[in-house]
Amino acid sequence: MNVKLANQPLSGIDADLTLEFVTPQRLEHHPHAALLAQGGFKAETEQHCALHEHRLLVCGVSDTTPETIRTASAHAIRTAKGYGYASLKLAQYGNENFAALIEGIVLGSYRFEGYRSDPKPSPLCEVIFSSETIEGTMLDTAILEPLFEQTLVIAKATNYVRDLVNQTPDDMTPQAMAIAAESLSRSHDLECTILDVNGLEAEKMFAMMNVGRASVHPPRLIHLAYKPANPKKVISLVGKGLTYDSGGLSLKPATSMVTMKMDKAGACAVIGMMKAISELKLDIEVHGFMGMVENMIGGNAYKPDDVLRAKNGKTIEVRNTDAEGRLVLADVLGYAQEKVKSDYIFDYATLTGACMVALGPYTTGVMGHNESLKRSFVEAGAEAGEYCGILPFNRHLTKLIKSDVADVCNVSSKPYGGAITAALFLDHFIDEDMKDKWVHFDIAGSAYTESAWDVHTHGGTGAGVRMTLNWLMNNCQ
Ligand code: BES
Ligand code: ZN
Ligand code: ZN
Most exposed residue of 29, 62, 153, 239, measured as fewest CB within 10 angstroms of its CB? Predict the structure, then answer.
């Protein structure tokens, strides 16, 4: 779908359909108030009324805050795609809602059709944003234009992440992700380093290697680097990239295994952020590290009772092979810190079902030692349209991952607080000087959905991308 900004009043734009948002307060002043009332339209949230004779789609909104406008435009564009129109135009609801409107349209119209034999694309292929407001004044395009370009880059990067997440484990293997990263590095002028099993062995990344041992798709470590001339900060982004998580020998029950192609969503978010960062030409040096592995069963699988030595030398008692993400991250975090001295290190991982139990399926868990840094991400997330919640560490939870045979155990001895004990496990692999510069994001709930909500349809959501890019633009520029 082609999205354009036109410095013209709405009436001057040629399009098949006009989209309009109406609050209950404004409804009685609407030029078609009587017709809308006849159709039973009360401007309730998510209520739509199409006046085809006027080529008008009217959508109810409770208010005109960015959150409401973002969700409403996502719903509206899905409705509009179901009609036979080829183009749609819409007016503005103030500068503060411009980005939300674009996000709603671009993210809300996304659909993954890669596995349909007979995809039925909607005829709607053009959306034109007028710079005129619904009240009839013109907004300054000098303000709108850069915001338009920036928001489009971020929304398209989010859709790119969704495309990667939605591909099957046999299509998006560790090697396929490496190929995707190499191709991105060529088109976006990024440096790209790939480690295969020999490379991982040379780097002593035995925790990550062992997780991938029973798979026919060998693991890959991907390092993408964006290096502008005079960067203001250096940032490392680390992603969990389990192209499939069967649980390993601690096999998942059948119903829990379904959707586990999404266990690579952290790595996909990282590659998507690298794409956006280079397109936005941010003044920050950014390194993306992705640990791509498939966790399978077999005669040569790693097993409960194994003791693994991670890259930083620490030994790990394996008591559950389904707690594999933290083993992969232990090594990738170690690699990232050894190779790059960064100002901040952030990791993204579909790490624990416990995070969903704690926060619900829509919210990213934010963990780390630096209180103000965590809070700044919750703010950046809220502004960008992502829900984030802080899960607090404490000294008692730390004791739950003590091991009687090795330096640390990969699962907790108690069944509560699992998202936090997983993060405390990762803490063992964060260098002393990086403790306050690290934030862990558990996106187990927020990265994937099987039912539409907000700007998301079935599949990957791109969790982490909008929040982090907003944080980088607010805090490092
Ligand atoms: N990939 C899963 C976590 C997950 C679960 C993500 C559901 C998305 C939806 C992770 O590797 C896992 O299996 N974690 C275990 C940890 C447990 C064995 C300590 C879990 O959450 O049950
Ligand atoms: Zn697992
Ligand atoms: Zn996993």
Answer: 29
- Beta strand pairing call for 220-226 and 315-317: unpaired
Atom of ligand 1 nearest to the CA of 324: 11
Instruction: Give 408 Cα–ligand 1 centroid separation in angstroms.
Output: 18
Handedness of CA 425, 426, 427, 430 (dihedral sign): positive
All domains of the chain, ordered by start, with CATH?
2-133 (3.40.220.10), 163-475 (3.40.630.10)
The two three-digit tokens of residue 174, written as one number? 């560790």
Radius of gyration of the chain (CA): 24
In tens, the pLDDT along 45-104 reads 989 999 999 999 999 999 999 999 999 999 999 999 999 999 999 999 999 999 999 999
What is the reported pTM?
0.98
Mean pLDDT, residues 134-139: 96
Q: Which residues are catalytic?
A: 252, 326
Distance CA 383, CA 399 (A): 36
Nearest atom in ligand 1 to 422's CA: 19
